[in-house]
Design a protein that fits this description.
CATH superfamily of chain A: Dynein light chain 2a, cytoplasmic
Shape of chain B: elongated
Number of helices of chain A: 2
Radius of gyration of chain B: 67 Å
Helix content of chain B: 25-40%
Distance between the termini of chain A: 30 Å
Shape of chain A: globular
Strand order of the largest sheet of chain A: 2-1-5-4-3
Mean pLDDT of chain B: 77
Oligomer: heterodimer
CATH topology of chain A: Beta-Lactamase
CATH architecture of chain A: 2-Layer Sandwich
Strand order of the largest sheet of chain B: 3-32-31-30
Helix content of chain A: 25-40%
Distance between the termini of chain B: 186 Å
Largest sheet of chain B: 4 strands, antiparallel
Strand content of chain A: 25-35%
Number of strands of chain B: 32
Number of domains of chain A: 1
Largest sheet of chain A: 5 strands, antiparallel
Low-confidence stretches of chain A: none
Order of helices and strands of chain A: HEEHEEE
CATH class of chain A: Alpha Beta
Number of helices of chain B: 10
Chain lengths: ~100, ~700
């Protein structure tokens, strides 16, 4: 297994992690550990939000770039790490 | 009045006409009687009665060529003037009959053509006449044959036709010709010319169409933001720079090969829609996930200051933070710890075994504090790693010493599991475990350079010349006073075993070596046979020697004989001696103060001393590892954060935070600025040393 696969596996087995997914640049999920409907929902919504957030950061200063996006809610935390072509989304319950 | 007159005239005219008609009508019958019977002119009752004068009046009647049907005045609308205008002259011509004739003048084109045609026809007639004279004879011969052929069956006709193809053709032609000649050229008119037309069978038309696949289409949409424009500019710049570089460096042949490789690369990249591109993002997310899990620890690390320290007199505590461990290194003891000089959250852990009997493999792990659950880099080796060091200028180079006496350099930029450079038995590896390695400044040729010390008594300087390790023996440690005479007159030296060394920070050539016998030698790189000085340090092997980071004269040593000693290198006896009730595994000076140091013992305790606060006792004395059987092997201070990492022989590394009491800075005096900096630290230590010296001189 490649290093990246191992890393993803570790993330998934980490304490409190509910699910991980990899989404491509068009918002189509490539890899996921959740069920289909949830994945599609997360992918579509988060993709738009990430683009908006990234655009905001870069509009303010084009030399800047967004490193990651964290949304903490009552139930869990959604972490999005954007890449050039892909988006990595992890949902974790940090309070466990 | 004249109108009436004309009417009268017309009436009279018509009467006259009638008379004549009557006359003409009766002319035939009564022609002879005309002179005899003169009819009396009968006057109609309504005839005008005119006077003689009026009767004699002459009326001129003009005969004009005017067309009575033509209009007498025509008015036309003139657009130019915008009014109706009278046309002066009205056309009086009346056409009674018109017929289109077919006479053409001789000189016109059509006339000439017809003339030419006539000539041709005449000419052909003449030639035909000549031919007919020849064929007349043929005709006479052929006629009976033809009669035969005609009489014969139809099947014979084609055969005969084939046999006499040429002749019969000619004959047929001439036959056509012959009747034509005597006749004149036929005029085709409606009386003797009939055109017969026949309609052929028209093939039905069929449409044939060909449709190609439409070119694939994709939707493209983009936004024009400031940052998109910026990105585009940056990309352009990069491309320009790349092309410039290529032009400068590559030759045309190389360019071709490059293009080939480029093509291959692009094809490979497009094929593999794989996940390795997510590696960077995956790393970040892993750290985020860990941060969440160890959130409280991270908060403590950053912000927690033990408030109880104010009440604790002068003692401090160590707050445990993260614990780093890896399954693969579970059975291996931590044999070396080193913080990275550039990335202050990265540290290297060397795993191996101190046990002589249980020697197995070794591992080099690099952890980041941002990700306590998994190391950033993993390297494994066949032999246990005993020591390691990171280069200050090239923080990606890690030099490692093995239990089997080899040394190797790992390059973190290259993710191979194998070291980039390695010593071999041919290139002068040590014959005993390498206990310490240390990078030095690059030599005059800018080659990387490091020293290693080993139990085989050699201190070796290794230089990396063109990717090969070249060794130079700097010093061979000899146990003084142990030279024995062998019968052959040679002197046999007992080799001393070096276990630790440290280089002076300012005086480049000077360094200290600790040995297994408990002695510390002060050596110089230039003198290979003699030591500058010897200190009778310990009763057992010296585990660590370290120069003070601020004070240039002070160094510290620790040993398995339960003691930690602080020395002034000009004085043969130690300044301070501390007995820790257990074998001391390692000592380390604190980077922020010249008087603070930490020591770890095999009973699992960590001791922190601050000489400025308490010269005789530790200000912190705390068990750090969980199980009692766990021995702590190494300790290191972080260069900037107030934490220490402690490695034990179970393969675990624990990170502890120093409480404020342990990090005491000189208090501000009223009205005076706090002086910080090495000078202050040196002065601080000096004061202490002077005190001690005074005491000693007194006693």
């Amino acid at each position: 297994m490649t290093e990246v696969e191992e890393t993803l596996k570790r993330i998934q087995s980490h304490k409190g992690v509910i699910g991980t997914m990899v989404v491509n640049a068009e918002g189509i999920p490539i890899r996921t550990t959740l069920d289909n409907s949830t994945t599609v929902q997360y992918a579509g919504l988060l993709h738009q939000l990430t683009m908006k957030a990234k655009s905001t950061v870069r509009d303010i200063d084009p030399q800047n770039d967004m490193t990651f996006l964290r949304i903490r809610s009552k139930k869990h935390e959604i972490m999005v790490a954007p890449d050039k072509e892909y988006l990595l989304i992890v949902i974790q319950n940090p309070c466990e | 009045m004249p109108q009436k007159q004309t009417r009268k005239q017309s009436i009279s005219m018509t009467r006259g006409a009638r008379k004549r008609d009557e006359d003409s009508g009766t002319d035939v019958g009564e022609g002879t009687d005309d002179w005899s019977q003169s009819k009396a002119t009968v006057r109609p009752p309504d005839q005008l009665e005119l006077t003689d004068a009026e009767l004699k009046e002459e009326f001129t009647r003009i005969l004009t060529a005017n067309n009575p049907h033509a209009p007498q005045n025509i008015v036309r609308y003139s657009f130019k003037e915008g009014t109706y205008k009278l046309i002066g002259f009205v056309n009086q011509m009346a056409v009674h009959f018109s017929q289109v004739g077919n006479l053409i003048p001789k000189d016109s084109d059509e006339g000439r053509r017809q003339h030419y045609r006539d000539e041709l026809a005449a000419g052909s007639q003449e030639s035909a006449k000549v031919v007919t004279s020849d064929t007349e004879i043929l005709e006479e011969d052929e006629e009976p044959k033809e009669a035969e052929t005609e009489a014969g069956s139809q099947t014979d006709v084609p055969a005969a036709a084939e046999a006499e193809a040429e002749t019969t053709e000619k004959v047929i032609e001439e036959e056509f010709m012959a009747p034509v000649q005597p006749k004149e050229r036929k005029l085709t008119n409606q009386f003797n010319f009939s055109e017969r037309a026949s309609q052929t069978f028209n093939n039905p038309l069929r449409d044939r169409e060909c449709q190609m696949e439409p070119p694939p289409r994709t939707n493209f949409s983009a936004t024009a933001n400031q940052w998109e424009i910026y990105d585009a500019y940056v990309d352009e710049l990069e491309k320009l720079e790349k092309t410039k570089e290529k032009e400068k460096t590559k030759t045309p042949v190389a360019k071709k090969t490059e293009k080939m490789t480029m093509r291959k690369l692009t094809s490979m990249e497009s094929q593999s829609d794989d996940i390795t591109k997510v590696s960077q993002a995956a790393k970040i997310v892993e750290r985020m996930v860990n941060q969440n899990t160890y959130d409280d620890v991270a908060q403590d690390f950053k912000y927690y200051e033990d408030a109880a320290d104010e009440y604790r007199d002068q003692e401090g505590t160590l707050l445990p933070l993260w614990k780093f461990q890896n399954d693969k290194a579970k059975r291996l003891a931590v044999t070396a710890l080193c913080w990275n000089p550039k990335y202050k959250d990265l540290f290297a852990v060397g795993h191996g075994s101190y046990d002589f009997m249980k020697q197995s493999r070794g591992m080099l792990l690099l952890y980041s504090m941002k990700n306590p659950s998994f190391p950033e880099y993993i390297f494994s080796s066949e032999s246990g790693i005993m020591c390691l060091d990171m280069h200050v200028d090239h923080p990606y180079l890690v030099v490692v010493g093995y239990y089997d006496g080899n040394v190797a350099i790992y390059n973190l930029k290259k993710p191979h599991s194998q070291p980039s450079f390695r010593s071999t038995s041919k290139s002068g590896k040590h014959t005993d475990p390498v206990w310490q390695v240390k990078w030095q400044k690059d030599d005059m040729d800018n080659n990387l350079n490091f020293f290693s010390v080993s139990s085989d008594g050699r201190i070796v300087s290794w230089t990396l010349i063109k990717s090969e390790l070249v060794h130079i023996d700097v010093i061979k440690l000899k146990v003084e006073g142990s030279t024995t005479e062998i019968p052959e007159g040679l002197q046999l030296h007992t080799v001393g075993c070096g276990t630790a060394f440290d280089f002076h920070k300012e005086i480049d050539y000077m360094f200290l070596v600790g040995t297994e016998e408990g002695k510390i030698y002060k050596c110089s790189k230039s003198y290979s046979s003699q030591f500058l000085d010897t200190y009778e340090a310990h009763n057992m092997a010296v585990d660590t020697v370290l120069w003070n980071p601020y004070h240039t004269k002070v160094f510290m040593s620790c040993s398995s004989d339960w003691t930690v000693k602080i020395w002034d290198h000009t004085v043969k006896s130690p300044m301070f001696i501390y007995d820790l009730n257990s074998a001391v595994g390692d000592v380390a000076w604190a980077p922020y103060s010249s008087t603070v140091f930490a020591a770890v013992t095999t009973d699992g305790k960590a001791h922190v001393f601050d000489l400025a606060v308490n010269k005789y006792e530790a200000i912190c004395n705390q068990p750090v590892v969980a199980k009692k059987k766990n021995k702590i092997t190494h300790v290191q201070f972080n260069p900037i954060h107030p934490i220490i990492i402690v490695g034990d022989d179970r393969g675990h590394v624990t990170c502890l935070k120093l409480s404020p009491n342990l990090r005491k800075m000189p208090k501000e005096k009223k009205g005076q600025e706090v002086q910080k900096g090495p000078a202050v630290e040196i002065a601080k230590l000096d004061k202490l040393l002077n005190l001690v010296r005074e005491v000693k001189t007194k006693t």
